[in-house]
Specification:
Length: 281
Amino acid sequence: MIVRPQGAVTYVRTLPAPAGWTWLREALALYWRQPFAFTALVILYTMMLMLAANVPVLGLPIAAFLVPFGTVGLTLAGKVSEQGSMPLPALLLDGFRPGPQRTALLRLGFIHAAMVLALVLIASAFAIDELRNWKVSEGQLDPASVSQNIPWDALAVSLLLYAPVLMLTWFAPQLVAWHRQTVAKAMFFSFFACWRNKGPFLVLGLVLMCLSLGVGYVATELLRAMGLSPQMTSMLFAPIAMVMTSLSYATQYPIYRAIIEPQGEAAPAPPAPPAPSPPES
């Protein structure tokens, strides 16, 4: 599916916190239209990132480089589902089509990979003491040594540093691909669009977290009540986890549609200046 340029973005909407709940409901409606196709698309995207991440030495930067292209494809999948069509795997390759958007997405991918790599290096410096205490037994990490030496400082630093990275790149792929913005301008717009809508994003994150934990707990207890082994429980729980992941990705398009200015919509006009008072006689 070829997406034509959508016009310049001159402003972004600022929405109230309950909009996060609206995004989730809209994402559920989109997902329900094409549940199998959307889940298959997310599985393909996840496997692509996992395969890239397993490449020795360069795996993580390669996976981070591909994320902007995946973001464009998954956002487009939501748009296609809204139109009543089936989101096909080819959507993940939409950003690689020849054109100016490909060059911009390549630049954005390199920048995202560099930021993620820098984040990992900084976090690793905080985790080095705990990692030294991890033990390997018969070619595998010893779970007891890992649980006793969790690098909480590194996890906290990673969370704090990844938040601005995520804000810089949340809308940037769509802005450079569909609105022909420069990479720097797109990252600027993305950051402040996220900051101005931090309330809805926090609500969405909390609801998704509670929903995932609740569904995961109920599903796990039901499977255990059936007398299944832990291995079989994990195997049967995997599809449930993938459905929740797909639902999370399905929020991309409702968020983009709600915050980024649609084509043909003008920015709100400034208030008219007060009329001059009549001269006193």
